[in-house]
Amino acid sequence: MQKIISEYLSYLENERNYSQHTIVSYANDLAQYYSFLKEEFPELIERHNDTDTGVIRAFLGLLLDSGLSKKSVVRKLSTLRSFYKFLVRKKFVRNNPALNIITPKVEKTLPQFIDKDSMVKILSLPDITTFAGARDSAILELFYGSGIRRAELLGLTLSDIDERNHTIKVTGKGNKQRIIPFTENARQSIKRYVQFRKEIGAETGMKENILFVSDTGIRLTPSKINTLVGKYLSGYTEIQKKSPHVLRHSFATHLLDNGADILAVKELLGHESLSTTQIYTHVTVERLKKIYQQAHPKASS
Description:
By secondary structure, this protein is mainly alpha-helical. It is 57% helix and 4% strand. The chain folds into two domains: 2-89, DNA polymerase, domain 1 (Orthogonal Bundle); 116-294, Intergrase catalytic core (hpI Integrase, Chain A, Orthogonal Bundle), CATH 1.10.443. It has twelve helices and three strands, in the order αααααααβββααααα. It has a three-stranded antiparallel sheet, with no helix packed on it. It starts with a helix and ends in a 6-residue tail after the last helix.
């Protein structure tokens, strides 16, 4: 089974052009599923056709009983559906045992975002007289000024930046590319950082074309980006999840607050479906309701 899993992951990378972050998530899900089979149904590890919906349900039930969130369980079910779909295609199995399992309902939570005043303060925090500070400033400005995802930012190269037109070429999910604008503040921050980057390159002999690197010329990791963003957000926001995605949420919410067309926001965010973008309209409406309740003299009557 492990050989088939490796073949499937290779398919995701080479044919579906999934990001490394997504592939790692799928690999972890399947490793957990493999461990479950090895423990509970060892005879099914090589007898793939004997796996039925009952086995999949038992796996999902174990995950829920362990305290895993419904959202995470739904993601793992999605992984299994995709995996077995691949096995059907390759004629390793006749049917997809995960296909007809009802997806657990997950309560939709509204995206958390940072208010505009706090955002201004956060963007002013990095010490732009140093390499690390100039880099961090460019990262924060790009996240908030363009709404890109973490994986998209990490994949940016020097040639993806069009300084003259204030645009960047972003490679998103499924290897789909889009051109999106960024703010003047982001342009200045990137320009400043690139100057520092040239000095680092001269010192280290760096040949890396990736835009964001460490002070030793090594490309940044997802965990480094999370730590970096969390550090700057921790002092100015009370929201629990201090991640790059919060800056993306803030970008979208502030655009809609200022009257941006939702279809334009959808394109900027690189969403496949409009329904994904519409969650931000709920954030805006809920915030307006709160303001109304606090400010209108008859709101509580």
